[in-house]
Amino acid sequence: MKVLKTYFEVFEMLKDEFCGFSLESEKVSIQEAVFRIVAQDIVSGIDVPHFDKSTVDGYALMCEETFEANDENPSIFEIVGEVKTGEVPNFQIQKGQAAKIFTGGYVPQNANSIVMLENTIEEDGKLYVFKPAKPGENILKKGEDIKKGSIVIKKYQKLEPAQIGVLAAIGKKEVEVFKKIRVGIISTGDEIISQDEKLYSAKIYDVNSFTLYTSCCKEYVLPKMYGIVKDDFEDLKNSLLRALEENDVVLISGGSSVGTYDNTLKAIESLKDSKVLVDGVSIKPGKPTIIAKVGRKAVFGLPGHPVSCLFIFNFFVKKLIDIILHQQDTSRKVLAKMKTSVATSSGRTEFVFVKLHFGDEVLAEPLYGKSGSINLLNNATGYIRVDATKTGIRAGDIVEVVLI
C-alpha cells in the first residue's frame, strides 16, 4: 500500500533537497533591478549624507547661545549669510552670528543647531530667537543615515522601490542580482487540445499551461511552455528531457486518467540521476502529486484538474521557489470569520476555497465545486486549511485565509 506524505513532510523534503540550489547572477541597471534579488552583500562606498545637512528651513547657529531665550527675552544674532541647497558656505559661524539655511543645505562650520523659521523673527539684519535650541537639532550629521563601509542591502534581499532608492543614494548605477528561475511547462493528456483547434467530441481546451504560465509570471520565474503531449511514454520522455536541458524546474500537468499519471512517473524514473521524492500527498485537493529531483533540478507532476493543478503550484511549487531564493514564506494572508460551517471527512488535510466579504468584519464564505471546475478559482479569494484531525470548521470561527 502506498504511504502518502503529509504536506509538512513535503515542505521539509523540499528544504533538504533544494536548499543548496545555486542560481547564476547578472548585472542590471538599478532601474531594471526592482523586485530582483541581490546576489551579494552591497557595501556603501560613501557616507550618506556626506556632509552635515539641515533637515528644515531655518537658521544655523550655536545652540548654547539660545538656552535662555523666551518670548519676552529672545536671543539676538547677526545674520552673516545664506546657505542655498547644493552650495558649500564660504564662511564660518562665530559667536553671536547666524546664517539662513534651506532644507538640505550644508551646515556652516561651528554651527551645531538649526532653529526653525517659526521660532524666529528676522528684522534689519538681525535674528530674534524665541525658543531654546538643542545640540544637533534639525541637523542630519555626516554618515548618520548610512555609514561608509556598512552593509546597506544583504544577499538574498528583494529590491523594492525603497532599496532602489538606497542604491541610488550611495551612487550605484548597477547591481548584481540572481537570474530568474527558469520553469518549463508541459501539458499532457489525449483529451487536451490547443485553443487553435475546434472543440469536438470529448476533447477539452488546455487550461493548465496558461494558469501555470501566468502564475509563474507573478513569481521570480521565467516560464516557457512546451505544448501539449499526448499519453505516450516516449513523447513525454523526450519533451521532459528537452525541458530539463533548458530549465531549472519542470512542471508536468497530467490528464485525468491513471495512465497519464503512470506515464509521468515512468518518464521521470527513466531519466539518469532521477530520484522520486514524493508519489502522492495526503491532502485534498492535490493527492496525485509527484515531486522528483533529476540531477540538481526539480520536476513536478501536477494533477490534471485545473483547481488541483493551480493549488499545488501555489502550495508546493511556490514553496520551492522561496527555498531556492532563500525567501521567507511570501504568501499573503488575512484573518477572517467563517460565514458558514464547513464539514470535512476525507481523513486528509483539506484546503477549502473561500470568497472574502469585507465590511465591519472580514467574512470567509466557503465555495463548493469539483476539482475540475475552473470557475471555482474564478470566484475564490483564497483558501483555508482544515487539518486531518478535524471534522470541519464552525461558522464564526476565526480562520487564516491564504490569498490567491
Helices and strands in order:
Elements: H1 7-18, E1 25-29, E2 42-43, E3 53-54, E4 58-61, E5 75-83, E6 97-101, E7 113-116, E8 120-123, E9 126-129, E10 139-140, E11 151-153, H2 161-169, E12 174-178, E13 181-188, E14 192-193, E15 204-205, H3 208-217, E16 221-229, H4 233-246, E17 249-253, H5 258-269, E18 274-279, E19 283-284, E20 290-294, E21 297-302, H6 306-324, E22 333-338, E23 342-343, E24 349-358, E25 362-366, H7 374-379, E26 382-386, E27 392-393, E28 398-403
Parallel strand pairs: 5-6, 13-16, 13-17, 14-15, 17-21, 19-24, 22-25
Antiparallel strand pairs: 1-12, 2-11, 3-10, 4-6, 4-7, 5-9, 8-9, 18-20, 20-21, 22-28, 23-27, 24-25, 24-26, 26-28
Helix pairs in contact: 1-6, 3-6, 4-5
What average pLDDT do the residues reach? 94
CA radius of gyration is: 31 Å
- Terminal-residue CA separation: 34 Å
Low-pLDDT parts are none
Strand content: 25-35%
Strand arrangement in the largest pleated sheet: 7-4-6-5-9-8
Rough outline: elongated
DSSP strand tally:
28
Largest sheet geometry = 6 strands, mixed
The helix tally amounts to 7
Helix/strand structural class: alpha/beta
Fraction of helical residues: 10-25%
Tags for this entry?
7 helices, transferase, six-stranded mixed sheet, single chain, MoeA_linker/N, 32% strand, alpha/beta, 20% helix
Description:
Its EC number is 2.10.1.1. Its cofactor is Mg(2+). It holds the Pfam family MoeA_N. This is Molybdopterin molybdenumtransferase. It catalyses: adenylyl-molybdopterin + molybdate = Mo-molybdopterin + AMP + H(+). This protein is of the alpha/beta class and 404 residues long. 20% of the residues lie in helices and 32% in strands. It contains seven helices and 28 strands. It has a six-stranded mixed sheet with strand order 7-4-6-5-9-8, with no helix packed on it. Strands 16-13-17-21-20-18 form a six-stranded mixed sheet, with helices on both faces. Strands 22-25-24-26-28 form a five-stranded mixed beta barrel. Helix 3 runs parallel beside helix 6 and helix 4 packs across helix 5. The radius of gyration is 31 Å and the shape is elongated. The two termini are 34 Å apart. The relative contact order is 0.12.
